[in-house]
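Bug #77: duplicate submission created two jobs. Keeping one. Sequence:
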Amino acid sequence: MPLKVVPRRDRKLNRLIKKGENLHLRRGERLYCPGDRGSELFLVRTGQIHLTTEDGGKKERVAGIIGPWEMAGEEGLVPDTVRRTGARAGEDSLVIPLDGSDVNRAFRTSSKTYGAFLAAKEEELALARALRGPKRAGGTARHLGALLLHLSDRLGRADNGEGVKLSIRIPHRVLADLAGCHRSTVTTILNDWIYDGVLTQEDGLLRILDPRSLAG
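Kept job's structure:
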């Protein structure tokens, strides 16, 4: 789970963001590659950035999503660190590069921001543990449910008392990569949940109506 920047809480970071230059990325455009050395982090203003890995050096898979007001490229906190993943625009996006040393200083002088960063890492580990369990006997649905709840906490918004609506469109292929299953399986499970009234999909955006069913 990446750090989500909250302007009122992260005033020093927000000042860096205001001074930064906008970088426009077209859908599919590469931001950086695995193995690159970098000293920058990237604040996503609009759109989404997909963190990518390669399966045996052949097929690229999505290992994470960075949404609006979240930061990608945390390796940049330590100068000249090798990137563990690649990063590619999942749709037309606007990002702001930030110097890693400046972000590091902002962390050191803001206990709330640093605490939020550590909490984000704990959430990331919790999700990884949830997705590591067995997929038999409904395990795939549980994995996908845990993933959707995680994404709704980060990228969702309450929608007039009718559940929580994700703010970005996430293709079934990407959900399959993140949940570690086949695309057709994701489509089947989502259709079942739509039929059961657990969630809806409008204009490509998922709205979660019954989070307890996903948790179960």
